[in-house]
Amino acid sequence: MLQFPHIDVEETFNQLVRDYGTAKVLTDVLPKNSPPINADYVFHSERIIAELKCLASDNSDSIRRQEKLNALLDTYFNEGKIKTKILDESTWKEFPLYLQRDIANLFSPSIRARIKEANIQIRETKAHCGLDHYSGLLILANDGLVTMPPAAFIEVAIRYITSNLHHIDCFVYLTVNLFTQVEGVPMPVLFWMPMSLQKPPKISDAFLLSLFNNWRSRVDKKWGVNTFGREMTDDDMEAFWKARHYPK
Questions:
Q1: What are the residues whose beta carbons fall under 8 Å from the beta carbon of 85, sequence distance 6 or more?
Q2: End-to-end CA distance of the chain
Q3: Closest Cα to residue 41, out of 119, 114, 125, 113?
Q4: Which of 33, 110, 183, 200 is most enclosed, with most CB atoms within 10 A?
Q5: 65-116 pLDDT, tens per residue?
Q6: pTM of the model
Q7: Does position 248 have pLDDT exceeding 70, yes or no?
C-alpha cells in the first residue's frame, strides 16, 4: 500500500481559498463577535457560500453499532441471501445491492448529522452576510470512514440532501488520505466527485474544475508526485459500487 505524508484537509483548503481570487475564509474577515454558526468560505466572483466537512469516523467500532451489523448479517445469512457473515473488501463485492444499502444506512447517521449542520451554516451565513442570492456548496471530505464504500456514502448524501435540505445546491465528495480499491484500476484511487443537485446547475462546471485543479496541485506538491484525473463513465458504475476503501 502506498504511503504518503498526511494532508491536513482543512488547513490545505483554507490556504487554497486564501489564494483564490476574491474568495475569502470567513473566519479571516468576519468580526470576532460574529454568530458561531457560519460557513467556511465565500467565493464572491462565483456567488457561492461553501462549507467544508471532514469526516474521520463513523463509530463503526462501537459495541451498539457492531451488534446491529451482526444482527443484520445474521438475518440475511439465515435467509440464505448471503454465503458468509464476514464483511471485508472481498465479501462486500458479493453482497446483494439491497444488503449493501442496509449496511450503508446503518453507518450513515454521522454523515447525515454533518450534512444537516452544513446546511444550517450555509443558510445562516447567507442571512448574516446578506448573501441570499448566493449558491450553497458542500465539500465532503472522507478522511477515515472505511466501513461505507464511496458509492454508498454518496448515495446517502444525495438522498438526504434532496429530501430534507434546501441550501446545498452542489456537493463535492473527495478523499486524500484514504485510498480506494476499484476493480479494473491498477493503482489506488482518490476521489474528487462534484454532484449538482439543481437543474440547471447553480454552480458551474468551470468553477468546480478550477477548484479541483487548485486542490490537486497542492496535493501533488505535498506528495512530490503527479496524480491524475479521469471522469467516470456509465461503464465504471458497477466497479464503483463494489469499490472498497483500504484500511487506514
A1: 70, 73, 74, 77
A2: 10
A3: 125
A4: 110
A5: 788 888 989 998 999 998 988 876 667 778 888 888 888 778 788 889 999 9
A6: 0.86
A7: no
**Which range has the worst mean pLDDT, 47-56, 100-109, 113-122?**
100-109
| Alpha carbon distance 183, 90 (integer Å) | 11
Q: CB-based contacts of 169: which residues, under 8 Å, 6+ apart?
A: 135, 136, 137, 196, 197, 198, 201, 202, 203
Q: What is the distance between the alpha carbons of residues 106 and 69, in angstroms, rounded to a whole number?
A: 7
Looking at residue 58, its pLDDT comes to: 59
Task: Label residue 225 exposed, middle or buried (CB < 10 Å: 0-12, 13-18, 19+).
Answer: exposed
Listed by start position, the domains of the chain span 9-57+112-245, 61-106
Residue 89, beta-bridge partner list: none
One-letter amino acid of 134: Y
Residues 6 or more apart in contact with residue 90 via CB below 8 angstroms: none
User: In this model, does residue 61 exceed pLDDT 80?
Assistant: no
- Burial of 196 (C-beta count, 10 Å sphere; 0-12/13-18/19+): middle
Q: What angle do CA 24, 29, 33 make, to 5 degrees?
A: 140
Nearest C-alpha neighbor of 23 from the set 154, 113, 116, 139 = 139
